[in-house]
Amino acid sequence: MIVVHLEYRLVPEYFLPAAVDDSLTLYRSLLRDDISSSRLIIMGDSVGGSLTLLTVQAILAHNLPKPCATIILSPFTDLSFSGESFTRNRLTDVVTHIELMT
After folding, report:
1. Are 41 and 69 in contact (CB under 8 A)?
2. CA–CA separation, 101 vs 30, rounded Å?
3. What is the rounded distance in angstroms from the CA atom of residue 53 to the CA atom of residue 71?
4. Can you name the residues that pair with 43 across neighbouring β-strands?
5. Chain segment 73-97, per-residue pLDDT in tens
6. DSSP annotation of 44
7. Tell me, what's the pLDDT at 92?
8. How is residue 5 annotated by DSSP?
9. Torsion angle of alpha carbons 91, 97, 100, 102, nearest 10°?
10. Mean pLDDT, to the nearest integer, of 31-56?
11. Strand 41-45 to 69-73 pairing
């Protein structure tokens, strides 16, 4: 088994789609190195989970071979901060407290 850890460009120095571009560049590089997509699993946790979702979306948009699987843990998906859970918990949940996230 081979594990590759991606050091992608981070906010606030860089904005989307920089991290997705980094991830897609790595994926394409692995394919060029004759690593079959059937042997590739993309995994991410938290914002990395969100990056995993965006990477798979980009893979599909570019008609690249799909990875064998994805593992997505606790993805951050509501970038609008307007979902029902954000609204309901905005003053009590330290994880989603908007003032702590900006």
Report:
1. yes
2. 34
3. 9
4. 71
5. 988 787 777 888 778 877 776 565 5
6. E
7. 76
8. -
9. -120
10. 95
11. parallel
Per DSSP, the residues of 45-77 read ETHHHHHHHHHHHHHHHTTPPPPSEEEEES---
* pLDDT for the residue 60: 98
For the chain, helix (H) and strand (E) counts, in that order, are 4, 2
Hey, what are 17's tokens?
Answer: 């789609």
Whose tokens are 């692995």? That residue is: 30
Are 45 and 70 a contacting pair, CB within 8 Å? no
Residue 75 CB-half CA count within 13 A: 15
37: CB partners within 8 A, 6+ apart = 31, 64, 65, 66, 67, 68
CA distance 69 to 82: 30
Encoded amino acid at 75, one letter: P
> Which residue carries 């003053």 as its tokens?
91
Please name which of 100, 71, 83, 76 lies closest in space to residue 3, comparing C-alpha atoms.
71
From residue 37, give the alpha-carbon distance in Å to each of 8, 40, 59: 21, 5, 11
Phi, psi of 59 (to 5 degrees): -60, -45
